[in-house]
Specification:
- The chain has about 325 residues and is an alpha+beta fold.
- The chain has two domains: about 1-105, Phosphorylase Kinase, domain 1 (2-Layer Sandwich); about 110-315, Aminoglycoside 3'-phosphotransferase, Chain: A, domain 2.
- It has twelve helices and eleven strands.
- It has helices spanning about 10-20, 60-65, 70-85, 110-115, 120-135, 145-160, 170-180, 220-230, 235-245, 250-275, 285-300, 305-315, and strands at about 1-5, 30-35, 40-45, 50-55, 90-95, 100-105, 110, 190, 200, 205, 215.
- It has a six-stranded mixed β-sheet, sandwiched between helices. Strands 7-9-10 form a three-stranded antiparallel β-sheet. The protein has a two-stranded antiparallel sheet with strand order 8-11.
- Helix 9 (about 235-245) packs across helix 10.
- It starts with a strand and ends with a helix.
- The relative contact order is 0.14.
Length: about 325
């Protein structure tokens, strides 16, 4: 087995995967780390004479501390998304390592500015709809308020330092939660983590990485995308129209609120990741700075005088 990047931490696990994966066993392998992941470590693997796969090594501590869905569910949901054609197809799951061997997507990983490009917004909106429509049901539910409660519990349990002012805004978050419950939609298989690095373009839009996946209100995915792309209201409307095929003012407002709920919660996620994980998968990545950046975005939305009208629209009868 050869590798251009083999660290002491992963060399043994690479050997385990090479021995356990049917498509890799007994073949000459070249490993190349794929950077950009915020929780796990991922490699592209070329197996002689040129077959390509992706191997994702899953971070057990993310499961142990409840920072993501359980690894068993992550693997199952990744397979479900692959069946839709939107996610990468699972070649083989190796939960004992833990890792998963995936289809290699020969395409371009998006950058954050791409999310707001006029050509990408409707394409991503339709891809989200395709995932929701075509993936088989996932085994778990993902409700952002459960993650928020879990992260607040970790803050208390481990006496974690949080960005200034974030906990003071919990009453506003509860108002948002109440408004979002009024016009809830039926749950669908969802990714729930639509940052740019989880979206690829190989001629069609592919959505990868299912660390927070599960059955969820479909507007969470649309709102999370809008938040990650820092969409203005017109761009959120464009994403919603691509999803529904028409404008829906109530669901448009709900998508905007879900973006705020997601960003508030992910701010606390990065607080926990920075304090509790042994190291960042991407060299030089600063979890605390990510928490601060996401909280700054959220605080601006919570202090926007227009927020009250969005809450009212989302919760209208």
């Amino acid at each position: 087995m050869t590798s251009d990047i083999v660290t002491g931490r992963f060399a043994g696990r690479m050997d385990q995967v090479a021995a356990a994966a049917d498509v890799l066993r007994g073949r000459q392998l070249e490993w190349r780390q794929l950077h950009g992941g915020l929780a796990h470590v991922t490699y592209a693997v070329t197996a002689e004479p040129g077959d390509r796969y992706v191997v994702k090594f899953l971070t057990q501590e993310m499961d142990d501390f409840g920072l993501m869905i359980p690894i068993e569910m992550l693997i199952s949901n990744t397979a479900a998304a692959g069946e839709s054609g939107v996610g990468a197809r699972v070649i083989q799951a190796l939960p004992e390592i833990p890792s998963v061997v995936l289809e290699y997507i020969d395409g371009r990983t998006l950058d954050t500015p791409d999310l707001a490009q006029p050509g990408y917004i409707p394409r991503i909106g339709r891809a989200i709809a395709g995932l929701h429509r075509d993936a088989p049901p996932m085994r778990n539910t993902m409700v952002i308020w459960k993650f928020l409660a879990d992260y607040l519990g970790l803050v208390r349990q481990h006496s974690l330092t949080c960005p200034d002012g974030i906990l003071d805004q919990l009453p506003v978050m509860r108002r948002i939660q109440a408004a979002l419950e009024v016009n809830a939609l039926g749950m669908v298989p969802s990714n729930n983590d639509l940052l740019a690095k989880n979206i690829m373009d190989d001629g069609r839009i592919r959505i990868i990485d299912y660390d927070f996946s599960g059955m969820n209100d479909p507007m969470f995915d649309v709102g999370d995308l809008a938040m990650e792309g820092d969409y203005d209201p017109d761009q959120v409307a464009a994403a919603c129209e691509a999803y529904f095929g028409a404008h829906d003012p109530v669901q448009f407002a709900r998508a905007r609120l879900f973006g705020i709920a997601a960003q508030y919660t992910w701010s606390l996620l990065f607080v926990g990741m920075g304090a509790l994980l042994p190291e960042a998968p991407a060299e030089g990545f600063d979890y605390w700075q990510e928490a601060l950046s996401r909280w700054d975005w959220t605080r601006a939305k919570l202090e926007d005088p227009a927020l009250g009208s969005v809450i009212a629209a989302a919760g209208s009868a």
